[in-house]
Recover the amino acids of this structure.
């Protein structure tokens, strides 16, 4: 089912999930760099907590037993710390991931663990993928394992950046895509008659063209003027041959073409309810 | 198909927006505080709102509404999907944990008994070799375990159990056993992913070293003491290491011989099937750590300790062999089902 969905997929690091409702949505799959940072953050949290507990244990043992801490209270403290060290290595990730699908470090970088069919993972999957960290760390030992040679190699050759633990547990790490709603594009300033004089009255774009222009228009302010001009110059002539383009800024010309195609010349008849003029200078 | 115009899209958004925002609010509550934080009527609303959002997404994609709107709906549908289908991830109730302990774990061990037996052989053959070799010639042990580690162990066992050590030392040792032994078992399982070689290595290494230490201590005349010490927790501890290693061997074998599946599918199936063995082995090692820390080192008479050790061995063996047992036909059905689906 998944393979069928993916045959016409764009070239990207996404995974397509088809739900029982026959809706296909795409999750962005997280790459090694982002996951490495999340892992470091988790380790920092764990060992920070470990250090804090160690200090408390020390203070209590010395405080309770005076300067000559008895071996009894000290021993109990050491036992506790050793169990804590065990929990950091083997329990922390499994419990948190099965509980909320993420750990504090992963959450900070916007990551979440899902099964390859897009569902939240259970305790089995969480335990499996995290116990198998020891295999991902090969040929090094666990402590040096954030370099995780086998895991990196596995991520490099699999399609969805799965380390060995992910492969065995059938899980993926995604960046849940929660795009905020954006207002529709509004041409600003409004089209001037002298600009429209050059433009055909009947502009028809196919869906891909329209989407390409729209994405360009939404993104152009982040591109920098030189890159914006460069990109616009690549598309504008092709459109100009079909519809006739006003001279001057090709970026503005694309905006005019888009406006005419999307609003079908009804600019002003039905102003978008939540559109703020100026969102599209 | 005629493409939708911006006013059409704006009208569509205006019409549907309220529902999306309600769904979004429910999703955020569920993500932040869990599905259980939703009230009954909110749960009832969730599914229709989600299905409508799915329909809206399909519509928006079909008539090619603007990319940001489609992205927004995708994100909303994906987040709601994750919440809605988290039902399988039910909280571990005490009943489900009892079922794992009393049925699933021993059954899984028996399902993979060939791998488990090989693992036990890989552990105990080197163990006996190390034991006999060191009894015959204590220098044999020194070649396997550094003398700096052997000396203090020998001194401790020579001393016997009469000098009562403090409860604090007991607790520290129990903590050490948890950290060390459960860690070894989990690593022994995990490295089985390397076609079983990692598990085999850890089994042989630990078997040889354990045997050599016991032989070395016995050769210096403290054999009775170390036997008294080990017998209490030995069946739990050594058995659990064997089971974890066996689970690792099974994992590796699924890659070596995937049958009529792809190697990845075969790995996933066997991982699902053996992971419960790893849970069980870890639990056994936790118990072993408590016994080893607090009981094995106590100054009780050695006959009591040996008697209890024998009883423990019988209990562990009977538990693995018999717990959760059903008619042969039911087990055979489960096995073929497991082979096909899990």
């Amino acid at each position: 089912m998944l393979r069928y969905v993916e045959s016409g997929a764009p070239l990207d690091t996404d995974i397509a999930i088809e739900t029982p409702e026959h809706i296909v949505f795409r999750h962005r799959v997280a790459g090694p760099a982002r996951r490495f940072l999340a892992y470091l953050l988790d380790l920092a949290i764990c060992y920070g907590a470990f250090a804090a507990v160690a200090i408390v244990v020390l203070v209590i043992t010395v405080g309770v037993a005076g300067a000559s801490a008895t071996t009894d209270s000290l021993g109990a403290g050491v036992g506790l710390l050793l169990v804590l060290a065990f929990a950091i290595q083997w329990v922390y990730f499994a419990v948190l991931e099965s509980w909320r699908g993420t750990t504090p470090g992963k959450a900070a970088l916007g990551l979440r663990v899902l099964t390859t069919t897009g569902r939240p993972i259970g305790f089995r999957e969480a335990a499996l993928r995290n116990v198998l960290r020891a295999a991902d760390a090969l040929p090094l030992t666990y402590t040096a394992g954030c370099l995780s040679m086998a895991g990196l190699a596995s991520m490099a050759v699999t399609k969805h950046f799965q380390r060995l633990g992910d492969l065995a547990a059938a899980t993926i790490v995604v960046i849940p895509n929660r795009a905020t709603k954006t207002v529709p594009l509004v041409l600003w300033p409004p089209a001037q008659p002298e600009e429209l004089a050059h433009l055909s009255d009947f502009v028809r774009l196919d869906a891909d063209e329209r989407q390409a222009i729209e994405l360009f228009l939404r993104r152009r302010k982040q591109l920098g003027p030189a890159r914006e001009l460069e990109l616009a110059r690549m598309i504008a002539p092709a459109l100009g041959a079909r519809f006739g383009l006003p001279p001057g800024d090709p970026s503005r010309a694309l905006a005019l073409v888009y406006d005419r195609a999307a609003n079908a010349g009804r600019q002003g008849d039905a102003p978008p309810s939540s559109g703020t003029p100026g969102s599209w200078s | 198909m005629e493409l939708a115009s911006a006013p059409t899209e704006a009208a569509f958004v205006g019409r549907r927006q309220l529902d999306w925002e309600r769904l979004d609010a429910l999703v955020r509550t569920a993500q932040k505080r869990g599905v259980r934080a939703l009230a009954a009527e909110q749960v009832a609303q969730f599914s229709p709102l989600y299905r409508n959002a799915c329909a809206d997404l399909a519509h928006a994609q079909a008539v090619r509404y603007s990319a940001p709107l489609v992205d927004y709906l995708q994100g909303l549908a994906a987040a709601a999907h994750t919440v809605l289908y988290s039902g399988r991830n039910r909280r571990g109730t005490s009943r489900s944990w009892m079922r794992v302990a009393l049925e699933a774990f021993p059954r899984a061990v028996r399902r993979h008994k060939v791998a488990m037996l090989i693992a036990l052989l890989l552990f105990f053959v080197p163990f006996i070799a190390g034991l006999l070799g060191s009894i015959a010639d204590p220098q044999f042990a020194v070649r396997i375990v550094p003398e700096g580690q052997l000396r203090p162990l020998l001194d401790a066992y020579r001393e016997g159990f009469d000098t009562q050590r403090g409860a604090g030392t007991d607790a520290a040792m129990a903590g050490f056993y948890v950290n060390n032994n459960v860690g070894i078992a989990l690593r022994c399982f995990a490295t089985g992913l390397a076609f079983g070689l990692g598990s085999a290595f850890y089994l042989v290494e630990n078997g040889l070293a354990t045997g050599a230490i016991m032989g070395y201590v016995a050769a210096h005349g403290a054999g009775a003491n170390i036997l008294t010490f080990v017998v209490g927790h030995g069946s739990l501890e050594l058995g659990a290491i064997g089971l974890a290693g066996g689970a690792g061997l099974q994992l590796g074998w699924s890659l070596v011989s995937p049958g009529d599946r792809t190697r990845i599918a075969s790995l996933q199936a066997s991982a699902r099937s053996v992971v419960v063995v790893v849970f069980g082995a870890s639990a056994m090692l936790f118990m072993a750590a408590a016994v080893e820390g607090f009981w094995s080192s106590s100054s009780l008479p050695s006959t009591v300790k040996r008697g209890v050790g024998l009883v423990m061995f019988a209990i562990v063996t009977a538990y693995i062999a018999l717990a959760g047992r059903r008619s042969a036909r039911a087990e055979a059905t489960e096995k073929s089902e497991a082979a096909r689906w899990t």
